[in-house]
Amino acid sequence: MIAAASLNWGIGINNKLPWKLKSDMAYFERTSKRILPIEDNKVQNAAIMGRKTWESIPLKFRPLQNRLNVVISKSLKKEEIIDANFVIYSSLDEAITDLSNSSKVSRLFVIGGSQIYKEAITSPNCVYILLTRVYKFFECDTFFPEINEKMFSLTTHEELEEVVGEQVPKGRQVDNGMEYEFLLYKRII
Ligand code: FOL
């Protein structure tokens, strides 16, 4: 899972992100695109999202380039969007099972929103939460689910860099007048 959440665990309002954080969006883009060195050049990662998150991505940015865009929806029809980088599944479980067996897909990133995060956080397949914590209160109408401390623990910065595959700024950062931090939670086996 990859997400950005405010102090009050908000992730969105009016089908938009509550903040503008260029450096975090760039981190999201690099991280979700990155293919680990040993992998061949025909694979890409999957960005798995709910229908509302899909609709929240600005038209000029969707489908997210160099990633397989996976939308979970029971109402969208395959015919509605014809793009090689786009697939629809009717459930998160079905998507995970199917994509795990695909040689064309490397990592699976669950990118939201609330409903899909909530399902993913209870799925044993979901091991990491790459969380950007925005240290500010925001009025929001959608929220990240509670991270049960018995199920997930914060890991070290070294492990974060290993998982992300690049050097990551450590500690509180400032962008656009907001403090935020790149964190990694790992499922406790
Ligand atoms: N994770 C993190 N760390 N920050 C986020 O803002 C975030 N947002 C989502 C999921 N995980 C996140 C869901 N919302 C785009 C827009 C909204 C969105 C996710 C992605 C998007 O347009 N991304 C483009 C880059 C856009 C830009 O440069 O402004 C991309 O190619 O990834």
Automatic annotation (TrEMBL):
Recorded superkingdom: Eukaryota
Keyword Acyltransferase: no
Pathway assignment: Cofactor biosynthesis; tetrahydrofolate biosynthesis; 5,6,7,8-tetrahydrofolate from 7,8-dihydrofolate: step 1/1
EC number of the protein: 1.5.1.3
One Pfam family, short name: DHFR_1
Keywords (A to Z) from UniProt: NADP, One-carbon metabolism, Oxidoreductase
Location of the DHFR domain: 1-187
One GO MF term: dihydrofolate reductase activity
InterPro entries xref list: DHFR, DHFR-like_dom_sf, DHFR_CS, DHFR_dom
Gene Ontology CC entries for this record: mitochondrion
One Gene Ontology term from the biological process aspect of the record: tetrahydrofolate biosynthetic process
Protein family membership: Belongs to the dihydrofolate reductase family.
Stated name of the protein: Dihydrofolate reductase
Organism: Funneliformis geosporum
